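debug: dumping io for the single-chain case to check the tokenizer round-trip. Nothing else runs in this session.
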Amino acid sequence: MIKRMNDFLAGLPMTIVGGVFLVMSFVFPRTDIALPVDPAWVTVIICGIPLLYLAVWRVIYNKGISKISSALLISIAMIAAIVIGDLFAAGEVAFIMEIGAILEDMTTDRAKKGLKKLISLAPTQGRRITNDKEEIISADKILQNDILRVLPGETIPVDGMIIHGETSIDQSIMTGESLPVDKCIGEDVFCGTINRFGSIDMRATKVGEDSSLQKLIRMVQDAENKQAPMQRIADKCASWLVPVAMMIAIITGFATQDIVRAVTVLVVFCPCALVLATPTAIMAAIGQATKHGVIIKSGEALEKMGKVNTIAFDKTGTLTYGKLEVSDIISFDKSISESELLTLTASAEAKSEHPLGKAIVAYAKEKGMALKESDSFQMQSGKGIYAEVSDRKLYLGNEKYILQSGITIPQNVKNELEKLRIQGKASIIVADNNSCFGILALSDVLRPEAGEMVSKLSDMNTDTVLLTGDNQKTAAYFATQAGITKMKADLLPEEKVQSISEIQEQGNKVCMIGDGVNDAPALKIANVGVAMGNMGSDIAVEAADIALMSDDISKIPYLKRLSNATVATIKLSITLSMCINFIAVTCSVLGILNPTTGALVHNAGSCFVVLIAALLYDRKFD
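debug: decoded output
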């Protein structure tokens, strides 16, 4: 009951009401409007009760020196002002403190939906094979060494090893790889990944809490728990502000025999400007960032971004677009042009459900190619296809499939395949009964702004590193293209987390930028997590502290400059507020200020801090 009433009074609507009555308390006596009760009493009740509640709660429940907070100092000053009858001063300090608390709450609220969405990805059932009979059971009833069947399009319910069949698995949830990975007997598959093609039988190896997806969920939970809430700078200072203020007030009272001066010292010593320095600067910076399509979820993230000296990037969907495109059309037969090769290949792949085949067909249609009807279409999952186009028998697939089809791969074709492999490209060999006569290569596409972005970060003394689930050659190719010299490849989610932890252990502050579900733990464990908000997964966006709504990674240098400026502004505001407090305390001890004028002076200091912070909103950071 008490907490509900306190929350109601501390809310924005009631705080505004308190502000209105505070203005009435200041204006009415100066316009000869007489009221039976000072309106400041309403402000004291509305804004003072939550303040007093917070001070008492911290004294009772906080440990050690944290019992002494800025709320306690301001409560003492408010009570002292009431005792000597200066209700305006009492209401003013309570109101300013409440405004600071509301501003900070507005900037530090964090969304908690991401973990629920991650948990929703966990498979709920699986097909268990017992004595050649198939039964659908709940995923939590699957035991180690159970034999499971996974049909095309189904989600793999637990970690396991394939014992029958071949397929292609979409592992993007775990590794972020843009291409499905071909799997055959003896290879491992992971919980939560999707079987794209052939039916497979698998033996369960890791079930329940031991599965890869459950580990992913646990890592996000653990990292969430490690995120300590941002402590107010005023509360950090309160451990010495309260004793110093009390000591100066008592000494002043005894030395001057004037209780008004002692109360004035307490009033002007209230760290209202100090309380406002952080949240107002952060509010202005968040507003500035929003105009540029950057959503910053908390003030803590903005402050930490200003201290970041290393930025780690995921590859697929972050440095690259995450979409496959035909990059190379190579004909080894002079009688077949690149255009004819594309037409033949796209016509053969027209009935294929494989992402590579679909990408080739889409590319051919985009180029206005007229596709021909194919006959006798056959597909071997994870290997390739056979089709007849214009009475020509075509074999399209990887090296293993071409060799199994009895077709020799000449050395010049092998050399070209190796060259494409080094560039991180996926290749489809095109052959007929006689020979290999072409290759089509597909590749993810590097964002054109990536190189300039990395260069700008380097100019700001910020290191960059690539952390990706893709293979070593693909990672090395794209890292070189972007100008990134440090990289780690073939990383599972837990290995990305480990890599970031290792960088942090070297004394670095790390920002992680990613877009996939597999990036969620790394986004959480990093000092700051930035997600690609437009095409990135909802889970990555929820796990991150900051989201780029336009997926424009050229905004990263802007974000770093904005964060640096915000931290500098906060430091400037704190320094100025402390200087104003020092001058005001001196004037209070000398009797130049009374509680009301002292409240106005330190209120002016608070306004000055807000004005400095507001300048961030329109500053240019490009």
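debug: round-trip ok. Confidence is low (pLDDT under 50) at residues 107-115, 226-231.
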